Amino acid sequence: MSSAAYRWIRRLARFATFTPEEQRALEEVSAGTRRCAVGDDLVKAGDPSDRVFVILEGLACRYKLLPDGRRQILAYLFPGDMGDPRQVLQSRVDCSMCVLWPTEIATLALASIQRLEQYTNVSSAMARCALMQQAIMREWLVNVGHRTAFERLGHLLCEVFMRLEAVGLTREHAFELPLTQAELGDTLALSAVHVNRTLMELRHLKLVTFQNRQVVIHDYPALQAAAGFDPAYLLNNEKLSR
Amino acid sequence: MSSAAYRWIRRLARFATFTPEEQRALEEVSAGTRRCAVGDDLVKAGDPSDRVFVILEGLACRYKLLPDGRRQILAYLFPGDMGDPRQVLQSRVDCSMCVLWPTEIATLALASIQRLEQYTNVSSAMARCALMQQAIMREWLVNVGHRTAFERLGHLLCEVFMRLEAVGLTREHAFELPLTQAELGDTLALSAVHVNRTLMELRHLKLVTFQNRQVVIHDYPALQAAAGFDPAYLLNNEKLSR
DNA sequence: CGTAAAATTGATCTGTCTCAACGTGGGTGG
DNA sequence: CCACCCACGTTGAGACAGATCAATTTTACG
Fold it and tell me: What is the pTM of this model?
């Protein structure tokens, strides 16, 4: 498959098996894509909620700003990820979404979503995808709430590794993660300085290196253990997991 | 209406308008209720996900435990709240749910959920309810990640006040909140000791008193300002908010 | 090359935790 | 009906993870 929808369909295909017709519908609906540059806001908190985005390439995130300028990143959107299609039921979105690395996106307006919801498998795959993202958010809350800086970073890297593996964006135990240390800080509720120190600790322990946007996990089992990472929450929705 | 489903229907009615038939379906489906005592686990992480609960009375919460015994509370379930009906698509649940105050619950098995999903307004109301709970979780992530202990507590109390008001469980600016300080700590990622000190600070500032499970908000505007609380995330799904 | 953003390092500060003790009120069994 | 008990709340003192402030170096890129 060479369609722009490749990663998306690959991602969804882990949640359901599609008929050729459903596959075609997914390709059609994501035909018109758009490129976005770093820093672009795809939606801002308070905007009307009348579409959802599919990230086909690059990296985006959902975030909220506090009045004092501090930012909490609420979710990463990797290639293949999409917003919750149910979200169009809302009048306004409650958090913003911006581009962290040059991105190709497809926009699904209400009509496209309704069309896709007709197909049982597509509808179920999108729902499972949304459920997984909710499970990730729950885990992030635990992460930020109850884990040390070291565990937080380790846990996040384990999670990202598994998510990128699901869409074929890892090689061995390495992957590209185009985030600055400040952005990692906004994700994990740590200062950029402390992210830096924790990253060095991970490096000295020969668990992970993170340089030039490249993450290399040198000892995955040890990292998983050190971070208390249990991948169950990422797998509970896959079609084979019953 | 005197049905046990009263709070639930009242909660959902803020998200959609029901036909008499839909109303009846909601009452029927929640007919068989069960009482649960404090400490009961309604589901445990890893259990098969084949039903959702509706809380009709009392207080329950979703939580995750870390291996070292620390607990993060992920959500409160007040009277009228329910689990996300889509959750039955998952093979297993990823977090536990327990009773914090004597509770009356209705259990919706797959068949009931499917029946309710037939009714457009019911289906949409349940979806909006689930969306609101997701918005709450995002806000909690911001809370735990980026706010001070003082703001966290204030923010939580503002939120709870609004949520209870939506189901008619407040009087003036007071409401019952049967949580221990330790449970508040597990929610806000603070130690019970520090919750206590922060509560005293709120009391000394004449903003809030919390004693014998009774919360009295003495100065709501000031509390809202001090906590940086913006209720938009709770209202974006209501039927009148377009 | 030059420049700005990002990473790195050191020194100091602080919010919150931990530990430990003590008070208190409501429920229970004798 | 009283006495005990246990969970919960309250208070104090000291410790520490991570924040903040302030340079300095490295990297990316026009």
Answer: 0.95
